[in-house]
Amino acid sequence: NTIGVIFDLDGVIVDTAKYHYLAWKKLADALGFEFTEANNELLKGVSRVRSLEILLGIGKVTVSETEKQKMLISKNEDYLGYITKMNANEILPGAEKLLNTLDALGIHYVLGSASKNAELILKQVNLYHRFYGIVDGNDVSKAKPDPEVFLIGAKKLNLSPEKCIVFEDAIAGVEAANIAGMTSVGIGDKETLKAADFNFNNLTEIPEDFFSKFSI
Ligand code: G6P
Ligand code: MG
């Protein structure tokens, strides 16, 4: 096929963004500062380590390297507590239908996620086998908005970046797709994701013929 799709995971395919938020909020509470959902937008799409740095910046808290490592472990333990209970009911509305559409059109799709838990999550919700390839937090050294994760995704699809369409719910992810020279589709608040080439509130809003505007 002449085009391919790269999906972000958290907040696009599955509703895990809320679990990341709860786990980070628990840490902020323990450190004694407020961490709002608006603050949380800045962490979406961002690697675990970078998220912690941003969070500590918001709280104006300075901690030792050892302390940071402990925080990363405990955040992930809390997060794992949520995701190991996940099942296919937590696939976001419209996601499976969209994958079916792509399958019918013969358009390959890969995952392009910053998460080191991506494989586990996709297996929990029984979608792992459907992806043509997986690129996740274990494959990259530079976090979104660096385009690395999506450029590796394009390689897996065997396509040049301009033939790739990226679905993203994060500011950092839309930016990464744009820097990569790909078509960016923002899923979520239009104002927050105004840098995207296309915007939809959720995957159910994607028109049946959306992919026909791209040369297939
Ligand atoms: C995704 C999420 C981020 C999360 C990152 C790392 O990009 O949007 O909120 O921090 O993955 O996830 P991990 O599961 O490795 O902690
Ligand atoms: Mg996301």
From TrEMBL:
SUPFAM superfamilies: HAD-like. The active site is at D8, D10. Signal peptide: none annotated. Substrate binds at residues 8-10, 24, 43-48, 51, 75, 113-117, 144. Binds 2 magnesium ions per subunit. GO terms for molecular function: beta-phosphoglucomutase activity; magnesium ion binding; sugar-phosphatase activity. This is Beta-phosphoglucomutase. The lineage of its organism: Bacteria, Pseudomonadati, Bacteroidota, Flavobacteriia, Flavobacteriales.
